[in-house]
Amino acid sequence: ATSKVIFTLYRGQIASGATAALSDLLGVYDLVDDTPRRVELITFMSPGDTIAPSLAENELPADGFKYFQPDLNVKDFGGEGVAFKSLAIEGPIYDTWPPEGTQRLLHGVRFGDGEAEGEVLLERSARDHITEIVRDFATRAFRRPVSDEEVEAFCGLADSLLAEARPFVEVIRVPLRAVLSSPSFLYHDVSEGKTLSDFALATRLSYFLWRTTPDAELTRLAAQGELSKPGVLRGQTERLLADIRAERFFEDFAGQAFRLYEINATTPEKTLYPEYNDILGQAMLRETELYLAEVIRQNLGASNFIDADFTYANRRLAEHYGIENVEGQYMRKVEIPDDSVRGGLLTQASVLKVTANGTTTSPVPRGNFVLANLLGRPAPPPPPNVGSLEPDTRGTTTIREQLSAHRDSPICAGCHIKIDPPGLALESFDPIGGHRTKYRATGGIYTAPDGNEYPAPYVEGPAVDPSGVTPSGRMFADIEEYKKYMLDEELDAIATHIASRLIVFATGAEIDFADRAEVAAITAELEDDGYPMKSMIHAVVQSDLFHVK
Question: Which of 101, 422, 441, 457 counts the highest number of beta carbons within 10 A?
């Protein structure tokens, strides 16, 4: 919602001779000007947004800004800084009162102004207004025309309150709540027959790509019986995907298909991964959402889920990836350098964080992610009494050594031959998606720039070995070679799984055995073009599976 952010701040400077350790920064600055300034900013904020200071680009140190080493950033800094005294957020802010949504809901009534601002003023009898409001609201809530009998049934709930001369706003809430409790609102289609009506088709399409009720154009086409025509349906699918409301689809599909809703399920261990913070975490999530939107809107092929020459990043995420010349905190499309290990979904930090526990990584959950969320071949649950891998933060053993017992067991070997290869290839990435050649381990000594020694947050442990052998017998040395294997041998499986997930996402029904032929027909139609993703969505919408209940 639109909100007002208010800062109270002073101009400050680091006091001469002051220690620059983060724990000592408070209270060791000299004020250049002790006059407080109040700064107000009107901005749009979404739930979960984080506010944080961001250095001006021309003030960044030449050797890069290290967010997790403040002593290296301010030790020799001689310029002025800002001392924040307070921060407050007010909102949401409305341009009118009552809010636009309330006025749209209670259309047909007037609202007072001046001393009576927001007070409901009736032009006709209260019952007439209730009937008009309920008819309009129920039509939109049920995503179809409503009969007079339905409207009267809901309005009748208000009669006893009208007889008691209750306030109009209190009275109208009763039938509106009843509408929102009706099966016609809670379920997408409760009519007879096996095939969706045009109104039900408009509902399914709108909830698929916008995650909300159909708009006026979809409703008009449904009322005219035009929406079910293939050409019209294709045009509407294109329109919905181009609209900003399709962002809800990109976010929700990425959240469900690639488990991004779990991104905050674990918190990286601060000692081992001090560079992680909420700002980086938000950038990780937005990268995958924006990347998916680009792949679909530009009709790029399914191979982009494995490898690509672009991604989305801001300065913070680009630093995390080692991509240079990305400035500012806003997310934008960036080119991936040829020598970078990044590219595609598997090397995005969001997926790498979701498949780690915050302290260590294991090939098992990451391998299972590739099998289940990209290939559609999830591994069966482990047999009873099979011990789990215990994280070793001291660096005395590698994860490959810990896995050897599982692979040597005849009971476990059948699954691990499939699970381990993708998981081992992804061992080049730590729990927050940073690229590594060695594991981090606890313990050790850190020598500060002033020569003093302190307990180190972490030290380098054993070397990472990301090599392995695929179930088909193909050897790979690292993630780059594993991605080539995926592109050569698994692209059809990936496309089939994505098509299946789109159908499940759109209809809410899992793919049955009898549905597999329809899914195969969708992918076969797109195979020669490399499975372009927008075309796949069109094919899903045109398929029989999308049109049946």
Answer: 422
* Proportion of the chain above pLDDT 70, given as a percent: 83
Query: Residue 237 has what DSSP assignment?
Result: H
Strands 445-447 and 29-44: unpaired
CA dist 491 and 469 (Å) reads 18
Query: Token match 């810990």: residue?
Result: 402
Task: Give the integer Cα–Cα distance in Å for 549 and 547.
Answer: 7
User: What pLDDT, in 10s, does the model give residues 406-433?
Assistant: 666 666 667 778 998 999 999 999 999 9
CB 73 within 8 A of CB 275: no
What's the rounded Cα separation, in Å, for the pair 402 and 489? 29
Pairing label, strands 468-469, 475-476: antiparallel
Classify the C-alpha dihedral 168-170-174-179 as positive or negative: positive
Beta bridge partners of 463: 438
- 329 vs 277: CA distance, rounded Å: 14
> Whose structure tokens read 């476990």?
412
Residues 6+ away with beta carbon under 8 Å from 81? 11, 12, 13, 14, 29
User: Can you name the residues that pair with 312 across neighbouring β-strands?
Assistant: 333
Sign of the four-CA dihedral 262, 263, 267, 272: positive
pLDDT one-digit tens code per residue, 216-234: 999 999 999 999 999 999 9
346: closest CA among 367, 328, 317? Answer: 367
Tokens of 497: 């799984």
Contact by Cβ (8 Å): 330, 49: no
- What are φ and ψ of residue 141, in 5° steps? -70, -40
Q: What is the pTM of this model?
A: 0.84
SS (H, E, C) 522-540: HHHHHHHHCCEHHHHHHHH
Contacts of 17-24 spanning 24+ positions with Cβ under 8 A: 20/70, 20/71, 20/74, 20/75, 21/70, 21/71, 22/70, 22/71
Q: What is the pLDDT of residue 100?
A: 87
pLDDT computed for residue 387 by the predictor: 55
| Rounded CA separation 379/91 (Å) | 47
